[in-house]
Amino acid sequence: MRAKWISILVILALLAPVGLAKTKLVIAGRDGGYGVVLQLAVDMYTAQHPDVEIELLKLPYAGLYEKLIIDLAEGIGAYDIVMLDDPWATEFMSHGWLVNLEELGYTPDPDFVANALAVGRYPYPDGALYALPHVGNVELFAYRKDLFEKYGLPTPPKSWLEVMGAAALIDRFEPDVKGVVFRGRKGNPIVAGFLPIFWAFGANIIEDGHAAVASDAGIAALKFLIALKDYAPVGVEMFDSSEVKDALLAGDVAMATEVWPAWVPALDDPAKSKVVGKVEIIPPPGLVKTSSPMIGIWLLGISSASKNKEAALDFLKFVTSAEVQKRLTLEAGHVPTRKSVYNDPEVVAKYRWFPAQLTALENSVPRPRVPVWSEIEGVLGEYLHLALVGEMSPEDALRAAQERIEEILGQ
Amino acid sequence: MRRFWASKPLGVEGVRPRAAPPCFRLSMVHKRPHMRSWYERHLNFFLLLPALIIIIFLTIYPIVNVIYLSFYRYNYLRGVKALVGVDNYLRLSGDWLFLQGLKNTFLFSITATIMEVLLGLGLALLFNVRFRGRKWLLPAAIFPMMLSTMVVCAIWRSMYHYDYGILNHLLSLIGLGRVKWLIDPALALWSVVLVDIWQWTPMAFLILLAGLQSIPRELYEAAQVDGATGFKLFRHITLPLLRNHLMLAFLLRSIDTFKIFDKVYALTGGGPGTATETISFYIYREGFRYFNMGRASAAAVVMFLAVGTVTAFYIRQVLRRNYV
To answer: Which residues partner with A181 through β-bridges?
Structure first.
């Protein structure tokens, strides 16, 4: 009899914590370096707010996209805070899947880089604010200053023709060093690698609501990329970010035409890099059009189906505040979105390319703001890759891509 | 001692059973059929019902839904749904990416299955006899199968790296040139096949080892008394008795390799060019990147028919003769 009462009391005691009202937030975020940064932010926040419990999911790029689409489209509400890439932003916001932050009473301060904040607005660029910029990714260009000086080349290279010339020269005469490296893998990698060249030639993916990739400028840009392949390491058609990063850090290439800030903190780390102090990071070169670096912000938004919107907004304000961004940048290699952090002397001392990065960010251009961008990117990525591999001619590839993109836009 | 097997059987309560109310009692089996209630007559069905419900919801319903969707143009994101009849299938037959994927899938499946079963047979024959070190060599032989596929792919991707991979390094040490494992369109698919063989031969090996060990030794001894040796023993005793296990190994590996997706996703992303495109990858891209559910469903139906045909063939073979 006594055993029965004791066991009842034990069960009640174990169930007691259920009664304590702890706010629980679930964040769907990225893995890798981004995961490390967010985890640090979560730990900092929960240390200050012990009544909030945060679960952080670290997912790969494609996995995050799939899971978010399904959760947001069905209104399941499994995630409170969602981390989204800016090309997905138009799609998510046009369906009303994210909470209007201004309606929750939030006003952004002017310390945010304007272009970074703009991609979180719908309609772009001055509609309501639906997501805050978390990672200030902007596509940059890296080159080996020591090699350029050795061959008497002007630094920094300002035009893609200079890039081609330098690649040919260094590739020919510098032993064990190839001229350039870029991402050629099918899909998002090759599109991100190709767009800086494409835009510099004056081409556009969409013009007046119609697909325009197969313009003369576009075909010329693709031919330029295929010509660059001669000076790239073997297998560049299959390269993704890790291969490009490895090639640059190992000192095997003279230039990387597309680098993202999140990849390069290790450039000056003697433990990982053989090119400490030798690589310069600049905004990408121009040609017909001046350099228009591609922006690739990772945004943080609140799901419309979330049950803890206020708590979520509080966390968002925390993680995008200046002090927290500075600490994340110094400790975890975060890429900030606030001007004050970019100009902070401590931060610049650690990451000497930040002033160039801020300039690039302030002049950056986003990818086309259409809700069907994911599909367009997939299709374009397929055909660009086939042209690069040589299975299709550049003209055929771009014309086929243009036809399919037109079909996608028309639906 | 009372002959307990001859006395009238007792009911569940330990007393003689009275006229049975409609509930399932063991006493039912001792009644003549016309004395059982409706529920008791259909007991089989009711016991199967929970499992049947689960199977219907998790298997039949999705399959029917996919076949239904394949006749529509349906984008999950835009919510647009329109009946297009066989248009999706006609599109597929003209989509060279899909046809290439079909071709690659068949090539992959046939090659990987045959190699895995042959190598598995070799390993099984090896391990069927006792030798020194067998005890710890056996787990080592099974080890690749126990690793997660993503881990396997991560390891092999770094080994296949053209500049920094260990395979090319070893080749250059012995004086041979470097190989473009995952870069050469002619080679990429076979590189992926190699990874699958490395990981899944242990499965065929285990099935065939179990089969070999179930063959009675007396048969071999009897044959040897009659003067049979080595290869004749293998051809006339081992192979016929192993037939069912071989069919099973072929069947399981065929189905598995036909579905190949994870290795392609992790190693090559479908490239270079269209060299490693497979049907699963096509379905994944159409269905979960572009969310064109109609098109993805049509491709899935085609894949289902292909696998179903292969499977039906094997099952007929296995069911035809259950004994020698």
So the answer is: A256
Taking all residues of chain A, what is their mean pLDDT, rounded to a whole number?
A: 91
Nearest 5°: the CA angle A80, A81, A85 is 140
Strand pairing category for A131-135 and A298-302? antiparallel
The 8-class DSSP code of residue A338 comes to B
pLDDT at B232: 85
Same structural domain, B33 and B124: no
| Nearest CA-CA partner of A305 in A46, A30, A6, A77 | A77
A19 vs A23, B114, B152, B256, CA distance in Å? 12, 60, 45, 48
Q: Which residues of A touch B273 (CB under 8 A)?
A: 237, 385-386, 389-391
Beta strands in A45-177 (DSSP E): 52-59, 81-85, 121-122, 128-129, 131-135, 140-144
Q: Closest partner residue to A389 among B76, B182, B272, by Cβ?
A: B272
Q: Residue A67: closest CA among chain B residues belongs to which residue? A: B288
B256: in domain: yes
Using CA of residue B121, residue B122, residue B126, residue B129, what is the dihedral sign? positive
The helix or strand, by DSSP H or E, that contains position A55, with its residue range, turns out to be strand A52-59
Choose the mutation target among A93, A375, A379, A407 for the interface with B, i.e. most B CBs under 10 Å.
Answer: A375
Residues B33 and B158 in one domain: no
Q: Using CA coordinates, name the residue in chain A closest to B181.
A: A235
CATH number at residue B193: 1.10.3720.10
Q: Domain residues for B28?
A: 1-37
Q: Taking chain B (324 residues) in consecutive chunks of 10 residues, what is each chunk's mean pLDDT? A: 52 55 60 73 87 93 93 84 88 90 94 96 92 90 94 93 90 91 92 96 96 90 86 87 91 92 89 90 89 93 91 80 55
Do residue A238 and residue B182 have CB atoms under 8 angstroms apart? yes
Are residues B154 and B94 both part of a single domain? yes
Same domain, B112 and B32: no
pLDDT of A45 > 50? The answer is yes
Task: Identify all chain B residues contacting A243, using CB atoms and an 8 Å cutoff.
Answer: 161
- Reported as a single tens digit per residue, the pLDDT across A172-196 is 999 999 999 999 998 889 999 999 9
For residue A294, give the DSSP letter: B
Residue B209 falls inside a structural domain: yes
Quick: pLDDT tens for A80-95: 999 999 889 999 999 9
List, as ranges, residues 276-305 from B with C-beta within 8 Å of A: 285, 288-291
Please tell me the distance in Å from A374's CA to the nearest CA on chain B. 7
Based on the fold, state whether residues B93 and B32 are members of the same structural domain: no
Domain co-membership, B117 together with B2: no
Three-state secondary-structure class, residue A85: strand
For the segment A308-324, the average pLDDT, to the nearest whole number, is 94
At residue A126, φ and ψ (nearest 5 deg) are -130, 25
Residue B135 inside a domain? The answer is yes
Whether B234 maps to a domain, the answer reads yes
Domain count along chain B: 2
* B99 and B4 in a common domain: no
Q: Does B267 touch chain A (CB under 8 A)?
A: no
The verdict on pTM exceeding 0.90 is no
Chain A residue with CA closest to B273: the answer is A386
Looking at residue B24, what is its pLDDT? 53
Kind and range of the H or E element at B275? none
Angstrom distance (rounded) from CA B157 to CA A225:
26
Confidence tier at A4 by pLDDT (50, 70, 90) = confident
Question: Which pLDDT band, with edges at 50, 70 and 90, does A67 fall under?
Answer: very high
Q: Do A386 and B183 touch (CB under 8 A)?
A: no
Neighbouring-strand partners of residue A29: A58
Instruction: State pLDDT tens for residues A199-241.
Output: 999 999 999 889 999 999 999 999 999 999 999 998 899 998 8
Beta bridge partners of A112: A338
Q: Nearest residue on chain A to B183, judged by CA atoms?
A: A235
pLDDT for res A13: 74
